[in-house]
Structures are given as C-alpha cells and as structure tokens.
Amino acid sequence: MLNMAEGLARLGALAENPVVRTLALAFADAGFDLAVVGGPVRDALLGRATHDLDFTTNARPDDILRVVKPISSTQWDIGREFGTIGARVQGEQVEITTYRADAYDGVTRKPVVEFGDAIDGDLVRRDFTVNSMALLVPQVRLVDPTGGVEDLVQGVLRTPTDPQISFGDDPLRMLRAARFSAQLGFGIEDRTLDAIGELRETLRIVSPERIQAELVRLLQADDPVRGIRVLVDTGLIEEFLPEVSALRLEVDEHHHHKDVYEHSLTALDQAIALERSRHPGEPADAILRLAVLLHDIGKPRTRKLEPGGSVTFHHHDVVGSRLARKRLQALRFDKETTEAVAKLIELHLRFFGYSEGAWTDSAVRRYVRDAGDQLERLHILTRADVTTRNRRKATRLATAYDDIEARIIALREQEEIDAIRPELDGNDVQRILGIAPGREVGEAYRFLLELRLDEGLIGPEAAERRLLDWWAARV
Predict the structure, then answer these.
(1) Homologous superfamily of domain range 1-152
(2) What positions does the domain HD/PDEase occupy (predicted)?
C-alpha cells in the first residue's frame, strides 16, 4: 500500500539525486522547465529501486543539446526527430525529451511528431496513468493530471485517455499492460482490459522485435505468471505465441488428465523459486523462464486418448522443441536463446527414466554431455516440472534428482565430465591408424567418444589398444 508521506519524501530524495540536481539547475539557469517523468517517479512513490532517468522539458532538441554539453561527457542525438537527446552525466545515462503532442496514423506505430509547450499535454499522451506523472525540478512539484497517484494507491493500471484510442494509437501498450501487471502486481481496470481483448489484432502492426522485447521484460518480472494470465485471458497472446493458450486442453469427463496450462504456470512459479534460491542476487534468467513456459507446448499436437480413458503425449518433447524453435525464430530471438530453449525442451523428460531405476555412470555422462552448458537450467526445469499433489511421488522424484546431481558432482571431481572428449584426438587417430584426414577419422573419433562415455577414463594406452581392436574388427 502506498504511503503518501513516505512517497513524497522519496520524491524529495529523487530531486536531490546528484544527476537530477545537476540537470535541473542547468535547465533552470537557461530558462527552461525540466521534470523527471514516468517510471522513476512511479517507482520513487512506491519505494522501488529507480534505474534509468528520463526527463521532459519545454526546451527544443537544439536547446537541450546546448544545455547538456557543458555538464555531460557524451551526447547523442539519434532520437532528435522525436525530440530526444541522450547524454552521460556524472557517469549515468539519461534521456531528455521535448514535450510532445503526437498524433498516430492508425497504420503504423510511428507517430507524427508534434512538439508541445505544456507538460500536462505531454503526460496525457503516455501509456498508463501511473506512468503519466512528472516531478518538476528543482522546485520539487508533482504533476499528475490523470490521477496516477490514486491509481497507485488502488494498485490499478488505467490508460490516461479512452483505452480504445490509447491502444489504437500504439498497440504495444497492450503488451505493456501485461508486463506492468507482472512487474508491479497491479490489476488492470475493466475498460482497459476489455479494450485489449477487442483490439488484440492491431498488435500485428508491431514489429516482432518489439514484441519479443516486451515478452522478455514480462518474463523477467517478479510475477510473470500474472502477466501471462492477462495475455491468455484477453486473447492477446494468440497474436504472437498461440502455443501457450493452446495448452488449455479440453478436459472431458471420460478422459481425465492434468490441465497442461495450469501445470505450466505452476512449473514457472516453481522454477523462479528455485532460480532465486540456487542463484540469489543474480538477474532473472529469461532463457530458463521461457523454456519452462514452453516446455509442454508439444502436448496439444501429440495428445491421444487411449482405450480405457488414459491420455498420452508421446514425443511431445521433440515436437515441442521444434515448435519452440520455429516460434522464437519468428519473434526474432537470437540464435543462442533459440537453441538453448529448444534444447531444454527436448531434454526435459530425460530425467524421468532415471527416477524409475538408477542410471549407470555412462548414462549420467551422456546426460551431462547432451545438456552441455544448459545443465544447470535443465536441473531447475526438471525439478520445477514436478507439480504433482501426491506428496509421496514428489518426494521420490526430488530424492532421485538429488541423487543424480550428487553423482554428477562426484563424476566431475573424478573425470572433468563438463568437457567430455576422447582421450585421443584426431591427430592421434591418424598417427595410430596410419590414415589421412577424412570420414574414417570421424568414425574413429566417435568410437572413442562412445568409449569415453561408457567407461570413463581408461588411459591413453588402453584407448589406443581399443582403437586398434576396433579398427581391425572393422576392416
């Protein structure tokens, strides 16, 4: 709950921030207004950490540049046509934008930029009331023309103008509603929520890159499940990630099975808890969270009702991996993220064979080899995937995974299994067998790798003998 007295005190502290004060005095001396705007004001009132500093002013871009040059180490004007000048002041990056009164054409997200002369007009054009507040400095006066403080108190997201107009102007704001709901733990006002459902198809004018960026920010929020529910309930997710809403499989009275959608959200919550406990203080892991959210998206494609009422999802791991790769590529995710998520989904069932019977050391080595640099994420995903209410079963699976992690640690100490490779390299193979580079060297190398995985370290001499035996049998 917002405590106004404490919030106002934090606004005063924000105004005294050395970077804010330096800029405020410089603009005042030049005869211009300056205000901290948007997220920093909202977060100061809520007592949340303030990161990037954004400012708005009645100065035009050329004037902004003239004012900041003497007090900054670097300036950039890549956003000049939109009224934005960037600068580095006392080591901190800031952006300062001329008051705007934009108009949109309804076809693209690019506004027809019009500079304004009044701060109230600038604030009304922003996305949500809680982001439409400004702190005038150095005089420390809060400007709140749209009732942002009241909405902060109530914990609600609402557009400053008619949501049909606001989202029509910029459809990305609908995704931002879900993201801010996840970040702040706020509900969304009914009219605003209804407009998302009605206008969801307008998201198609937004570039995949911008959608991807908002999705990542949502997943890195404190409570991404809250935001995902907004996306699914409004149907907005159908426009860019329909595989998630498809998880809401129909449950009929004769073929009972777990609700895959709810299971996936529970798994995501559990993965986040594990992530925080195993890696306290580290940034939110978007790759892990994306993989957990998508780990079962192959189930709708592979769902089969068996005689007797059981439901199977054979090979949903492989199918889901393929679907995820295709979807992430469409959203312009980088190759590293795409391949990591696809690998995690493909491997997420591998452990459950271990829980039904102890693996050999060879099987454990292969598990580590196949997971590669995704092993820690696979640990978390696999543990989080256990959402059964059967306490006995959950305990058995947790104990089994404790055991496999302990065995991996022990094998690491003995064999350096994180970098499993044959004890003889390609040059050794050519020398020992007297062959030139080519297909046969690759076959020999694969034999040696399988030998290493099956039997561990046996020593170079023994490896050479086994290689010669293999070669002789092959010929």
Answers:
(1) Beta Polymerase, domain 2 (3.30.460.10)
(2) 256-399
Q: 247 in the Ramachandran plot: left (φ > 0), alpha (ψ -120 to 50) or beta?
A: alpha
The arithmetic mean of pLDDT across residues 427-441, rounded, is 84
Tell me: the pLDDT tens digits for 404-432? 888 888 777 665 555 567 778 888 888 88
Q: Which residue has the higher pLDDT, 117 or 354?
A: 117
Query: Which residues touch 13 (CB under 8 Å, ≥6 apart)?
Result: 44
Domain residue ranges of the chain, discontinuous segments joined by +: 1-152, 155-240, 251-419, 426-474
In CATH, which of 3.40.1440.10, 3.90.78.10, 1.10.110.30, 3.30.200.20 is domain 155-240? 1.10.110.30
Q: What pLDDT, on a 0 to 100 scale, did the predictor assign at position 52?
A: 84
At how many degrees (to 10) do helices 335-347 and 316-330 cross?
170
Predicted confidence at residue 2, as pLDDT, reads: 66
Q: Is the dihedral of CA 113, 119, 121, 124 positive or negative?
A: positive
Cis ω for the linkage preceding 138 (within 30 of 0):
yes
CATH class of 251-419: mainly alpha
Residues 148 and 124 sit within 8 Å (Cβ to Cβ) = no
Q: Which residue, 33, 94, 90, is CA-closest to 59?
A: 33
| Length of the chain (residues) | 475
